């Protein structure tokens, strides 16, 4: 791979501008795409997020522009305002001092102000499909000199229902224009569009295209649905990231989620498509400058954002598919940096994590929050061989726990040999007769009578009485014994039967 931009036929002045920004060597996607674009080829470029796709098309485009021709020569179509402004900022840095002008045409901003800026005759425009088409219909923008059209985050542009707008823009350009499609994921549904509009397209898949960056750590936490907000709070308190993006799927509940996160003490603002341009600029400026720690965003609003300080991505709601997971994860770990992606899911959503792991071929590690730390989840004990669903226990230990006796040395200690509801000195253990020299032999009724102060003669007379018998022929004392023995171990029940037969 080339180690210098000059070896890719990039002019020295642009290479110098990159070095001033600390960019010395081209990335794989830049090394593959730049020569093809300079040759005028149609290109479908796919690469991981954060690998330098913007420079891969921006560098050759500005180098091909003619500063003497005061006409629109290149158009870059983007899905969101933030991505448009981000690309425009890159173009302004590259074109500084060259006489080239870059302008944005994005929705949410004042149309008249943008129309006034067009009077400066920009050579390159970055815009959203709806606003570009609107200006074309007003005949304030001409496509007759456009030689290159770029669609960045192409899958998202077409997924947002802008396909008709984009294709109308294509039709307004010359037939021999150059088309460039860039994205981290290019679904199979794009193939029909590629065949319809491109001429002998060159496909580029740099690195692990369509996959998350290898420098990322993928974690997930399982909790109840109602505890997700509090789980975000605990994660932020535990990791304390410098900057983190929290993703949600429910646009209608953005304000509610922000209020709940702020209520639990988190520093957070929201970024969403319905907000005005000034509001979105305020939020992004504040987040980049570190005025607040968390940015709550939706998939659309965050597409393509490049914020180097983002160390963590938290999925409050799981993304709808693996491709969206890739784009969310790409907000951290950019250009080889380390990053952490944490997904919060309920028990019934747990299978989605397995699907992502299989589709992306990356390990997802489950974590739990305990005592202010992130720990490994407790593993259930395995049943012993031959056990029926649980580990085989110690009969003596079971007997102590259930109150049915224990080691011989413990039997005469206070509190031992009692069942629930039995009394000390009753002469029974677990409902079984016990020979005890301290108490006269007899039924439990004898002891109760003696304890109640009844005369010994009367108690002795009661011995000869026959116990009441129920309809099944069982004596009342037998039923009582059976009831108390109901939860006893099998070996103890057998012993009771043997003692009874003796």
Automatic annotation (TrEMBL):
Q: Name one GO molecular function term.
A: hydrolase activity
Q: Which branch of life, at top level?
A: Bacteria
Q: Where is the composition biased (Basic and acidic residues)?
A: 430-439, 475-502
* Keywords, in A-Z order: ATP-binding, Helicase, Hydrolase, Nucleotide-binding
* Chain segments carrying region Disordered: 375-502
Q: Where is the composition biased (Low complexity)?
A: 450-459
- The segment(s) forming the DEAD-box RNA helicase Q domain are 3-31
- Domain Helicase ATP-binding, by residue range, is 34-204
Query: Which protein are we looking at?
Result: ATP-dependent helicase
What organism does the record attribute this protein to? Answer: Paenibacillus contaminans
